[in-house]
Write a structure and sequence with these properties.
610 residues, elongated, mainly alpha, 4 strands, 65% helix
């Protein structure tokens, strides 16, 4: 029986050897006692090596061969024998296969690096990388990059990809560049995989600047990068808003021979079309799309989405409609936002029939017409053709089977109120509540305005109470409607209650609110309260409009507050506002009664100029 000798460092350990049948079919069981420096093994032609870090076996396991326990310590390296580095790699790998002994495997690897006859195998490198990534020991990983250079052994493509991806995810950028430099200088094939993994990781983390910098750094090495790398670099430029550079990268890779899948070619052309579209070169993007189809590269729905969106943005509606119909025939129009954008553009240019054609196309393509699209069509007809046309289009769309949502209902309710069709507005509100749209502040506020116009104070109050009971609280528009309603009825008590509720809910009254309040107190000739609320209004920082200014001129004139009146008139002049003749005369009388003839003549001159 031959025993392998140690290196020139001292060793202190024990091991047990068992012989079963013959020397060539024997099995080695080595039990390491900690701490240890290295593991000696028999230089046999055995086919399996088993390492176990548990407690030692009993001294006698089989009768035919006694167990022998040895304690060896060598100070000098024998020159006649050398360890078999293949079996040593197997031993290291066997440690790494068990999570409980992985650290032993790494120590064994570190000790083996001092042997002149040791060279790690790819499988050993794979286990080392997996262990160091799991332990997140980035310093030891950095040292491993030097081992790659020294032994000229590199991981396979799969392990390389995992290694670079883990470093990018941990944002260890120096480590990423260190590994890639080693790969680029020694193994171009592995380097391409590593660069692709780094670019993908950077883009996933939105670190687009790092992707561009990485590409520029290794561009001088004249590497044959894959089309996937091309796509990732173009994507980085596009996300950074540098569409022209994305197009330039495409032309660099355009004539490169690559065996990548058709999906990689599609992704590159998709980024190209999107970049050209954002540069305002939509027709060129369509031409590139046609060129791609001639090459036999398959398209998908994303191409039609990108091209149509950019054509609509550029106002090329005819070409957009043509692509829309083409995409419909191929069943590649799936994005409802495209239809919405196209309808909005048709509304802007006033071609309302085209907008209805888009809705019909959606129905043919079995794409649900959303509430936003219905609302855009209805409001478009209202702006371009009037309220009656909008109501008719709404009825036709409902008859075609389209279901309105909360936004469309609120728009139709508003139209009915402005048309004075209050009963129809009430039926729309009832339909909304029946379908579960019972928390729409806009709809409730519009209906409260309708009741206020009719002087139906009780109905408005009930609707406010119902609104609150359903967890839908009034907004400033609702409160302003109530203030106007109570102001016209001179119900000052209710107005004060509303103001207190607004204060409690921390809703600040605006100019419309103060106009209703000051106007109501002016009507009962309580000018002191008018001035009080005007002082509050000035604290809001809002400007006086013509309606409020007219009321204040009357208040200041009747209370002989000349200084405030002159200040108000000067502010009005600086802002270019005009008052009617009645208020000018009221102001003139107040100024002359106060003996301010100079100010009166100034106001009179202003009146003549206006």
């Amino acid at each position: 029986m031959a025993i392998a000798h140690s290196l020139d460092w001292p060793l202190s350990f024990g091991f047990i050897c068992r012989s079963r049948s013959s020397l060539f079919n024997s099995h080695l069981a080595a039990t390491v006692k900690f701490p240890f420096s290295f593991v000696l093994f028999f230089n046999l032609s055995s086919q399996s090596v088993r390492a176990d870090s548990s407690a030692c076996s009993p001294p006698l396991l089989e009768e035919e061969a006694p167990a022998i326990e040895l304690g060896l310590g060598f100070e000098e390296k024998p020159e006649s024998l050398q360890a078999d580095y293949v079996e040593l790699n197997l031993l290291i790998c066997s440690f790494f296969k068990d999570p409980a002994t992985e650290s032993i495997g790494y120590e064994c690897y570190q000790s083996s690096k001092g042997r002149a006859d040791f060279r790690p195998q790819i499988q050993t490198i794979k286990f080392l990388i997996r262990y160091l990534i799991q332990s997140k020991d980035w310093g030891l990983l950095f040292a491993l990059s030097n081992d790659f250079k020294n032994y000229r052994v590199f991981p396979d493509q799969s392990t390389c990809s995992k290694l670079i991806s883990a470093c990018v995810k941990a944002r260890k950028l120096k480590l990423v560049h260190s590994f890639l430099e080693v790969f680029v200088e020694n193994d171009p094939e592995i380097s391409t995989v590593g660069i692709e993994s780094a670019l993908r990781g950077f883009n996933q983390l939105h670190m687009y600047r790092n992707s561009v910098d990485l590409y520029q750094k290794f561009q001088s090495y004249n590497l044959d990068l894959s089309l996937t790398c091309c796509y990732l670099i173009m994507e980085a430029h596009l996300k950074m808003g540098k569409s022209e550079k994305a197009v330039a990268v495409f032309h660099e890779f355009k004539n490169a021979k690559d065996s990548s899948s058709s999906s990689s070619h599609s992704k590159v052309y998709l980024i190209l079309c999107e970049s050209l579209g954002k540069m305002g070169r939509s027709y060129e993007a369509v031409a590139c799309f046609r060129e791609m189809l001639k090459k036999g590269i398959a398209e998908n729905h994303e191409f039609y989405s990108s091209l149509i969106r950019n054509l609509v943005r550029g106002g090329e509606l005819e070409m957009a409609e043509e692509l829309m119909l083409e995409g419909e025939s191929k069943k590649m129009i799936r994005n409802p936002d495209l239809f919405f954008q196209l309808i909005v553009k048709y509304v802007e240019v006033g071609t309302m029939e085209k907008a209805l054609d888009v809705v019909a196309l959606m129905k043919r393509a079995n794409i649900k017409v959303s509430d936003c699209i219905l609302c855009a069509v209805v409001n478009g007809f209202r702006r371009k053709r009037g309220s009656k046309a909008a109501l008719q289009v709404y009825k036709n769309l409902v008859l075609q089977g389209h279901e309105p949502g909360q936004v469309t209902y609120a728009s139709i309710l508003n139209i009915y109120v402005h048309q004075g069709l209050y009963s129809m507005a009430e039926s729309i509100l009832a339909e909304m509540e029946k379908r579960g749209f019972d928390k729409c502040v806009v709809a409730y506020s519009t209906m409260i305005v309708a009741y206020a116009k009719q002087g139906k104070t009780r109905e408005a109050t009930r609707l406010v109470a119902k609104m609150k009971s359903q967890g839908c609280y009034p907004n400033i528009w609702t409160y302003n409607s109530l203030l106007e309603m109570y102001g016209k009825a001179l119900n000052l008590r209710q107005m004060e209650k509303i103001l207190k509720e607004m204060s409690r809910r921390k809703i600040t009254p605006n100019r419309v609110s103060y106009t209703s309040i000051i106007s109501a107190y002016n009507r009962i000739k309580d000018y002191g309260t008018c001035v009080k609320y005007y002082e509050e209004f000035k604290l809001t920082g809002e400007k006086v409009d013509a309606i409020l200014a007219g009321i204040l001129v009357a208040v200041f004139s009747k209370t002989n507050q000349v200084d405030e009146l002159i200040e108000l008139l000067q502010d009005m002049k600086s802002e270019g506002m005009k008052l009617d003749t009645r208020f000018y005369r009221s102001a003139l009388v107040a100024l002359r009664d106060a003996g301010l003839e100079v100010q009166a003549r100034w106001l009179e001159g202003t009146l003549k100029k206006s």
